[in-house]
Fold each of these.
Amino acid sequence: NAGVTQTPKFRVLKTGQSMTLLCAQDMNHEYMYWYRQDPGMGLRLIHYSVGEGTTAKGEVPDGYNVSRLKKQNFLLGLESAAPSQTSVYFCASTADRANQPQHFGDGTRLSIL
Amino acid sequence: GQQVMQIPQYQHVQEGEDFTTYCNSSTTLSNIQWYKQRPGGHPVFLIQLVKSGEVKKQKRLTFQFGEAKKNSSLHITATQTTDVGTYFCAGPYSGGYQKVTFGTGTKLQVIP
């Protein structure tokens, strides 16, 4: 009964380092999303995918890349981390359209020094 | 682009008092969702409203969708400490159902 699983849960990076955040869902959902959450800013969409092999830019895509090679996995990459990318990152999925309930992972707390 | 604003940003209430958060969209929404995020947790889906003027209740929570489908509200009657958290509304992005825009959220603190 895992739902949406994000790894890692916490990470500290130095400026310029790279890393990949992994999101895995076991609900056979088509749509997957990456959000970042900053104090007072709500949830802002970074990138999303409407199916295996597809990706699209969201509201704040700069500095991030994504891949959806398998339906159950959605990867978020930071090629050269910057302090402005310090945030809490949430992955979410929906069955087949965004107007259905979104199921969120527990989040990844990322600090860039 | 589409904007979804919520007021107030923060609200402190005494336990037992009522609480209301308002959600306003710059564009007409086909539907609206509400989520709750407990401190340190992730957003959890509460409910979805679809029809103009729709009102739905979940125990002490009452959700309303405006007649013009550009605003919504969440009202909690007789708050409890378990209601603490941030409440978000979310609506489909203009022109499609591939993504939603989340509101800025209202953080509720309940004083015992």
Note: Chain A touches chain B at residues 31, 33, 35, 40-45, 48, 50, 56, 58-59, 90, 92, 97-99, 101-107 (CB under 8 Å).
Amino acid sequence: DSGVTQTPKHLITATGQRVTLRCSPRSGDLSVYWYQQSLDQGLQFLIQYYNGEERAKGNILERFSAQQFPDLHSELNLSSLELGDSALYFCASSPSGTIYEQYFGPGTRLTVT
Amino acid sequence: GNSVTQMEGPVTLSEEAFLTINCTYTATGYPSLFWYVQYPGEGLQLLLKATKADDKGSNKGFEATYRKETTSFHLEKGSVQVSDSAVYFCALRAMTAGNKLTFGGGTRVLVKP
């Protein structure tokens, strides 16, 4: 158990809908990262938050957004969903500073039908 | 940009066989290198890491050496077990790219009794 929790574990929704994925980092970790794992794109970095502020952006679509709250949990919002958004979405956390490794949550499997 | 290339799987082995998974990278600066493992239905777990040239990371019988001259970080294990069946991801973290991880495509390993 990495100490990173993600909810829900599975999510099935229809095209055009909007969903919110939630992540709670390890106790004391200030950074949260979101990654997408899909069959065609592999594991890709989406976005990073540090202590409530956006720190880095990767291949995140404009239909996707994220935020980190004062209690450090983070939410990834996916809107106008398309079939191609079906994937496993991972959250990871790390302490402050770039020398620390990231600890991954169990993921949320999103299926868009 | 930064990239990681690892051998495609699946790799099928018998128990007690020797395992090698090749990984090469392209990065600016001096990246840190990682191997993550994903067991069926689970998230990613850090297996080992190396932060500078000639460092050897090791854990659970797995080893990988950071070779700057060949830009490689091959994963090896001398005697695999059925429980080593998983997907293995090579990843890098380049200081010029913040703390985000860039992953290879993953290699599925299946160990048969």
Note: The longest strand of chain A covers residues 42-50.
